[in-house]
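Pasting as-is:
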Amino acid sequence: MQTTLGTQHRQVGAVVCDMDNTLFDFVEAKLEACRCVVDYIGAGDPGALFRMFLRGVYGFEDTRNIRDYLEVLGVYQPRTFETCCRTYEDVKLDLVEPYPGVEETLRRLQDAGIGLAVATDAESVQAYRRLRKTGLIDFFEVVVTPDISGQRKPEPASLLYALRRLGAAPEVAMMVGDSLARDIAPGRQLGMVTAFAAYGDWHGGRSAEIPADIILAKFSEILDHVSIQDRRP
């Protein structure tokens, strides 16, 4: 894996963060939600249900994936489907918690006057629900989702929208995300400083393929690379 570029402190005026698996462990919450659905119906396999969401037939959060899985098992009933969806959403939301150091790091950046934004492929309702549950919503001036920008990553539309709202040029902004293809690549394309959240990369990406400026073993390491001056009294 590519190493970080020392502890060089960069003049950064804005930080744009991916959300899931960058600010909190969303995959583990989703896996546990799948386990609870399987427990409820008394059949199937949590991993198989999880993989239904990865097919690309619907979105990664579309509950029609649950419907299809129930049909595969031959247990689909409207009431069963409704209960499974409610179980899935409730468990998933209940389990999302910020990674260690996320709140303090965001607070340090915010206190230093650095603009903060989220650029996520989750839909607005899901994004705001998770950010409120984790207590992170008030750190971000802007939350950009595909229903706002009109495109999903790796298209740069969400990043550009966030930068415009923050009033920041790409060359003085940082993109932080757990996906080399969907976060780091568009950040590099725009000329942003890129920080790869390797701690959240559940795909096992190789940073040599799409090199990032910084490799983060934990979110708080952002502070090792950003020149900040705390403005708190």
